[in-house]
Specification:
- It is a single chain.
- By secondary structure, this protein is an alpha+beta fold.
- The chain is built from eight helices and 15 strands.
- It is globular and about 50 Å long.
- The model has no long low-confidence stretch (mean pLDDT 94).
- Bound molecules: succinic acid.
- Succinic acid binds next to strand 5, strand 14 and strand 15.
Amino acid sequence: MHLHPTGHFDNHARTYRNIKVLPLAAAMGAEILGVDLRQTTEEQFADIQQALFHHKMIFFRGQKLSHAQHEAFSLNFGAFAEDAYTSGIPNHPNVHPLIKEADDRSEMVFGGGWHTDSPFLAEPPSITMLRSVEIPPFGGDTIWANSALAYANLSDTYKRMIQDLKVHFSMRNVLKSAQAGVEQRDSPIGRLGATRDLERLPEDVLRKVKGNCHPLVRTHPGTGEKAIYVDGAYAIGIEGMSDDEAAPILQFLVGHITQPAFTCRLRWEPDMLALWDNRLCVHEAYNDYRGYRRELYRTTIAGEVPR
Ligand code: SIN
């Protein structure tokens, strides 16, 4: 079902005492104003978290944060997650560089393809925070899709059909694309691509290829909201179904979640911080800025076993 962009969209800002909120698109996303992320109060943080759960992705402009300040703000949300791709930067193991150099002509970019972060882990990260330092003059946007709104727009019959299914998530297809389409560089995706020359994959990569099965309909632990937990990059099957049986369901659901009516798109500028809730949305980074450098830093917050 593809929607005409009318209907039951509610991305209104709620009333907050300690922050100002400007909704971004009809489906999701909001800019948060009136906060200095180097010194948020407890009351501001409570409003920020509520706004995140409501809008699924929120962002701040004009926040020139050091790596330590980025870490300190992140820790308001909980402990850091295992990052499936990098071990961080010197002295800041939980701050992960996402840098694409101007001369990198790789066909694949880190974060390309619709995905939720690392669902192949037993406990995927709950929240991701991305801070921009250098942004190309055009391109390099990130786009998100609201998988809770997509769930709400399914028919009751389809909801019943999928309610007990579990999705098999694996790094398998991303690994294959990295082995085929990235230059060998000292970057998260470059290092993954370099495994093409190994006789045997490292244990750690094998664990992520084996992956995990999680509920297709996921309930948010903070709000009880239900969302479709499926993506285009890591969902490779449905537990108890043959590949032929699972493929049309996965294909329909990814197409359903990512239709333009359910998305918002961020045009980055330096010194932004964007946060999203991986339990309620999927996202994709564009690889459309060849010849320009893009530099961002990412932290991820530990999540729970999806239910
Ligand atoms: C990501 O998927 O975490 C990266 C998104 C981006 O680089 O825009």
